[in-house]
Design brief:
Largest sheet: 9 strands, antiparallel
Subunit structure: Forms a ring-shaped head-to-tail homodimer around DNA.
Distance between the termini: 70 Å
Number of strands: 27
Number of helices: 6
Shape: elongated
CATH superfamily of the largest domain: DNA Polymerase III, subunit A, domain 2
GO molecular function: 3'-5' exonuclease activity; DNA binding; DNA-directed DNA polymerase activity
Protein name: Beta sliding clamp
Mean pLDDT: 94
CATH topology of the largest domain: DNA Polymerase III, Chain A, domain 2
Structural class: alpha+beta
Subcellular location: Cytoplasm
Helix content: 10-25%
Number of domains: 3
Low-confidence stretches: none
CATH architecture of the largest domain: Roll
Radius of gyration: 25 Å
Strand order of the largest sheet: 10-6-2-3-4-18-17-16-11
Keywords: Cytoplasm, DNA replication, DNA-binding, DNA-directed DNA polymerase, Nucleotidyltransferase, Transferase
CATH class of the largest domain: Alpha Beta
Amino acid sequence: MKFKINRLRLVEELANVSRAISSKATIPVLTGIKLALNQHELTLIGSDTDISIESILSSDNEKLNLQIERTGSIVLPTRLLNEVVRKLPTDTVEIEVNDQFLATITSGQAVFQINGVDGAQYPLLPDIQTNQRLKLPTMFFKQMVHQTIFAASNQETRPVLTGIHLTFDEHSMTAVATDSHRMGLRQIPLEIPTDFDHSVALNVPKKTLLELTRIVEDEQDLYLAISDQQVIFTVDHLTIYSRLIEGAYPDTSRFVPENYTTTITIDAPEFLNAVDRAGLLAHEAKNNNIQLNVEGNAAYLSVQGNEVGHVEEELKAQKIEGEPIKISFNPDYMKDALKAFTQGTVELRLTSAVRPLVLVPVFSTEVPHSQLIQLLTPIRTH
């Protein structure tokens, strides 16, 4: 195996496939990156069994300056390969592998030799046969992930809650994430082909979607395909394969109250900053909560009964309607929820001290199927 390639492009592609690799891999060969070379292209693969990322680099791409001399395959240590190629002195790198799978990496006067493993030992990627394929609106899709992913659980006791739940109808795609203490829901407009199964529901691991948003650029074409408990995302020369999480996702529609007794309309960044300030004292307490008190035409945030001190701030609400109420919430969860709205005005909907708080955007949009909901379970105080 022997080839030359543009070093900076190789650095970029090694970084992309490395995102799939876990330092806790139980299969030794999966701690490395597979390089496979045929007569026309170089393929790089990283995997941790749950997610695999494949980058196919064609010799027809002039920017790569890929020159293939001899085919073959090898698996090389991820961290070392990335560091070596990144720090090489010239714009071109040559990699040659002998029969004992010793890789010689040359650039300018620098020559590294790294022991590798036969590429034949690397697990095969799934053979995807499907007509269930969608073109996604890349920028909206990335926004949807960022506006929901933080609400997914980190606890493996309920695996289905550690991912994002994707559903479809004729004109939209909806993402929901919840850890049972909070929920994020975002709907984006999407024209679904008639031959696509609208009833399909996907539980996608959050690592898969997080790494995808880091790799894909807003202007790139992004495709989704489904096949045999796998979801596949394709963008240009990159393919991301991911297992789907098994299990029935809870019916999150029942989490959202149908009626509200109190509403507060407020600028999202203003509210975020106020919560951030009150959180300074809330984090010093054992229970880490902020109380929201609505009285007449005023609303206050406060942290009281704290051995360090107390704080109270009146919110600069644009409008307050409904009944008086006192309700407590986790400031970190509230900040995550508010960041999903970026700029703009939100409506905070309240029912009682023990029913969920709901945040929705206040805007006029001509784009249908663009729903955004953030929900928090209040903290019960005595």
